[in-house]
Specification:
Number of domains: 1
Structural class: alpha+beta
CATH topology: Ribosomal Protein S5, domain 2
Distance between the termini: 38 Å
Radius of gyration: 14 Å
CATH architecture: 2-Layer Sandwich
């Protein structure tokens, strides 16, 4: 993680570093300081869903570790997604669609 780039906001800390090959991957860390199990699982669920939806927009070959800060436990899902968008935004390739319109 020391070789990667770090970016953070009030809710999350994101560490990203390049991988030689393969699709982008996500690792999550949500400690007990964030809240009880229900709160921690909600944060992980929102983060996984966001990453799954936006993965195609990411540059290929990125390994990401997302660390939830204690403040993330006290906000709603909309604020969590806004925090994730602020962190992952620079890692998106410009001009590509995030997903197919159904």
């Amino acid at each position: 993680m020391r070789r990667g780039r770090r970016k953070g906001n009030a809710l999350f800390l994101l560490c990203v570093w390049p991988m030689p090959e393969g699709p982008s991957r996500l690792g999550l860390t949500v400690s007990r300081k964030v809240g009880k199990a229900v709160t921690r699982n909600r944060i992980k669920r929102v983060a996984r869903d966001y990453f799954r939806r936006e993965r195609l927009r990411m540059r290929p070959g990125c390994a990401c570790v997302l660390i939830a800060r204690p403040e993330a436990g006290g906000v709603d899902n909309t604020a969590l997604v806004a925090g994730l968008e602020a962190l992952f935004g620079p890692w998106f390739e410009r001009g590509r669609e995030s997903r197919q319109k159904v």
